[in-house]
Amino acid sequence: MGIAQTPVPPYYVAVITVERTASDDGYLEMADAMYELAKAQRGFLGMEWVYDAAQRAGITSSYWTDPEAIAAWKQQADHLLAQRLGQERWYRAYTVRIARVERDYHWPT
Amino acid sequence: MGIAQTPVPPYYVAVITVERTASDDGYLEMADAMYELAKAQRGFLGMEWVYDAAQRAGITSSYWTDPEAIAAWKQQADHLLAQRLGQERWYRAYTVRIARVERDYHWPT
After folding, report:
1. Could you read off the pLDDT of A69-104 as tens digits, one per residue?
2. What CATH code would you report for A11-101?
3. Of the four, A17, A93, A100, B70, which is 20 to 30 A from B64 by CA?
4. How far apart are CA A58 and CA A86, in angstroms?
5. Which residues of A touch B (CB under 8 A)?
6. pTM of the predicted model as reported, rounded to 2 decimal places
7. CA atoms of B82 and B40, how far apart (whole Å)
8. What percent of chain B shows pLDDT beyond 70?
9. Do A17 and B48 touch (CB under 8 A)?
């Protein structure tokens, strides 16, 4: 994962925090496919994700121009399938937070 | 890491995305100490973090009542020391994004 190159704020972020089950069956393939699908969506700015296999925990942070783009992504058909598979197979619990980025800073500057 | 139990929005999030150096020297001890320190700050609501040792990447997501609480945390003395140590030793690059959480949802509901 590299740090996403996002524009000057404001823009939007969807932070998804996941507690995973013991199953990795198909998970990484799904995650790669969702990234490719997100990249093709209107308003997509970037995505970062980190997954700790030992802790069974993950955070995905995706960046979007506006909340409508996030809502459209949430309703995208293949993404809905991945969400349902996730609830059945890979996820024990998750929280999604939609937030408006007001400022950001970088190091090295 | 467990999913942070945050109140009904609005609240604030600081998302820190890190590209790490090869050094783990003192890193986990620092991270634990910063969590304990953050918990004692005014306005702290919760923190989640995931670190992938193989990818040398991490995301920390901390939750706060308001942007002033985040600004105060950024200026806290021991935290400043950790930031400087991080730039010298543990971090190759990082981005901090301060955002206002407008909505969140949970599964299982």
Report:
1. 999 999 987 888 888 888 888 999 999 999 999 999
2. 3.30.70.100
3. A93
4. 13
5. 1-4, 6, 9, 12-13, 15, 17, 19, 48-52, 55, 57-59, 61, 67, 87, 91, 93-108
6. 0.93
7. 16
8. 99
9. yes
Token output for A38: 């997100």
- Residue A8 is classified by DSSP as S
Q: Is residue B104 over pLDDT 90?
A: yes
Q: Give the length of chain A.
A: 109
Contact: B61, A57; criterion CB under 8 Å: no
Q: Where are the domains of chain B?
A: 11-101
Structure tokens at B30: 């620092």
By CA distance, what is B10's nearest residue in A? A99
Return the exposure string of B82-104: e unless at least 16 CB atoms fall within 10 Å of the residue's CB, then b.
Answer: bbeebeeebbeebbbbbbbbeeb
